[in-house]
Write a structure and sequence with these properties.
Layout: E1 33-34, H1 46-56, H2 68-78, E2 85-88, H3 90-102, E3 108-113, H4 118-125, E4 129-134, H5 143-148, E5 154-160, H6 172-181, E6 187-191, H7 206-210, E7 216-221, E8 234-237, H8 240-249, H9 257-268, H10 270-293, E9 305-308, H11 314-324, E10 326-327, E11 329-331, E12 335-339, H12 343-359
Parallel strand pairs: 1-10, 3-4, 3-5, 5-6, 6-7
Antiparallel strand pairs: 2-8, 7-8, 9-12, 11-12
Bound molecules: pyridoxal-5'-phosphate.
Length: 360
């Protein structure tokens, strides 16, 4: 066999593979809960399950490539023209298309760090250069430093609001000030995967901000609040040239008919789904309050997870949690992200955190 392998692009060297949250172990031991992927712990609504059953019997056919039904539902829901919408295989798929559409070798993509771990991967896969701007000591986006980092090579800036994995959110005045500093030919992507969990009225809805700013694109997903993570559907709201570029860079038939039908049914069942989000937000308040009562420093979170900055103790803490029955998401040397899940799972996590706190 020849020693020569096909030539791959040099940019791929050293790019880490995306690391998903660890699944909960299947064993004879106590129930293990997965708090490692910011998923929605509630099972699909019966009405949503029913809506996909027609598509289940027809998946020998390709889906509606234009996502016609979903697009018109989204246009109504958000009060935006159809030409301002684009769907994709999860919002991470749409984020990748945005980088592809704007940035290549020699171009720069700015984002906060630490933030959503797909950003460096999709940037480097496009051949562009990541520019990582550290979060403030309070684990919030440093928007002034991000604006200072803009050069004539900058093509795209991600603002993850609320930020994964810290849960922190930037507020209206500082975000508007930042947007005013960004040149009109640089695309700002407001990644609002966790928007429905926001309760701080000062955290702006990106859809309001995009309307009179042609260089702002809002990313949303059905994976979190709407509970469709396994079906892979997300979307962008942006002005014509950006939305059109997304339609060009889309993988044909990327959003399955099951996903489209479930997303439409979820929008129609929004009140019930947002009621569930409300329960998770109450649990979040309990989790954060209890942790702080135990002596932990927890940044204010507007998402469905909490962040504990554990530094060198991160991996140990994750191992102790796993032994207790909850799988969390460690970022070695930095901290642990813990999804707010089922009450029982949150209880196990809180008890484990209390025990660990006493030992350190
Ligand atoms: C900030 C952020 N953006 C996007 C995504 C991607 O979500 P999806 O591709 O499931 O829509 C995630 C998922 O964890 C996320 O945390």
């Amino acid at each position: 066999m020849s020693e020569t392998s096909p030539k791959l692009r040099a940019e791929l060297e050293g790019i880490p593979t995306y690391k998903p949250g660890k699944p909960a172990a299947v064993s004879d031991g106590p129930v293990a809960y997965k708090l490692s992927s910011n998923e929605n712990p509630y099972p699909p609504l019966p009405g949503v399950l029913e809506s996909v059953s027609a598509a289940v019997g027809a998946f020998n056919r390709y889906p509606d490539m234009a996502c016609t039904g979903l697009m018109s539902e989204l246009a109504d829901r958000f009060g935006v023209p159809l030409t301002h919408l684009a769907t994709g295989t999860g919002s991470v798929g749409v984020a990748q298309q945005l980088v592809q559409a704007t940035s290549g070798p020699g171009d720069e993509v700015i984002y906060a760090w630490r933030s959503f771990e797909a950003y460096p991967i999709i940037t480097r896969v496009s051949g562009a250069t990541p520019v990582q701007v550290p979060l403030t000591p309070g684990d919030v986006h440093d928007l002034d430093a991000m604006a200072d980092a803009i050069t004539d090579r900058t093509r795209l800036i991600f603002v993850c609001n609320p930020n994964n994995p810290t849960g922190t959110a930037v507020r209206r005045a500082e975000l508007e000030r930042f947007l005013d500093r960004v040149p009109a030919d640089v695309l700002v992507v407001l990644d609002e995967a966790y928007r429905e969990f926001v309760r701080d009225a000062e955290v702006p809805d990106g859809v309001e901000l995009y309307r009179d700013r042609p260089n702002v694109c809002v990313l949303r997903t059905f994976s979190k609040a709407y509970g469709l993570a396994g079906l892979r559907v997300g979307f962008a709201i942006a002005h014509d040239p950006v939305a059109a570029a997304l339609r060009k860079t889309a993988v044909p038939f990327g959003v399955s008919q099951l996903a489209q039908d479930a997303a439409v049914a979820s929008l129609r069942a929004e009140d019930e789904l947002l009621g569930r989000v409300g329960s998770l937000v109450s649990e979040r308040t309990r989790v954060v309050g209890t942790l702080r009562g135990q002596g932990w420093t927890v940044p204010d979170t507007q998402a469905n997870f909490v962040w504990l900055r554990l530094g060198e103790r991160t991996v140990d803490f994750a191992a102790v949690c796993e032994q207790a029955g909850v799988v969390v998401r460690p970022f070695a040397g930095e901290g642990v992200r813990v999804t707010v899940g089922e009450t029982e799972a949150n209880d196990i996590f809180l008890m484990t955190a209390e025990g660990f706190r006493k030992e350190i």
